[in-house]
């Protein structure tokens, strides 16, 4: 909090700098004033003292310090408080990651986060699984689509097994993100719309990432057998990853090539 306070100029928040300012950035009393909290209380918060803090006050402090979405989330995690304004993140994908995803064609590929949100996909993925850009952003999620999409239910021949496995993986991943609103909001939405999801979630099954082959029925080229391969784009396992759907046999390789020609 101190580092973020010191990077803000008075002019950025509508304050007068004055002639005798020695503190880089804002003073503590100025942040307290902008947050509508007491100076002593804000000082104790910045010093990390064991005080009770509400989500509303943290929200005001985050606004006063001009925190971006990542910094705001970090502030709430450090305080052990649930953010009252859950928002879906809008990550900026690097040109390198996007170029790599498109280079994999004619193999389907996506860029996903740890919650299985599809952040981007290449043309072969749209040909095999559907054009996700036609859906609202909140529905561009593999777990949501596997649970609710009629197209995915009909196309994915191993759909029931895949759904059970993905729910188990989501539960495993969520253990490290229990306090993050986006994870809980996704879960709450699925529990509300699907009795099947509710029944599978109550099993408390766990699973980890592993390569596996799944079967898909395409209306134009027939059966596709694809192996799911994950490539993490950073050392941390919870960051974005490239998911490639690689042919598991020569027939699938040939049919993906044919699908690219049809396009």
UniProtKB/TrEMBL annotation:
Pfam families: HTH_31 (PF13560), MLTR_LBD (PF17765). Residues 15-72 form the HTH cro/C1-type domain. SMART domains: HTH_XRE. CDD domains: HTH_XRE. GO terms for molecular function: DNA binding. It comes from the Bacteria. This is XRE family transcriptional regulator.
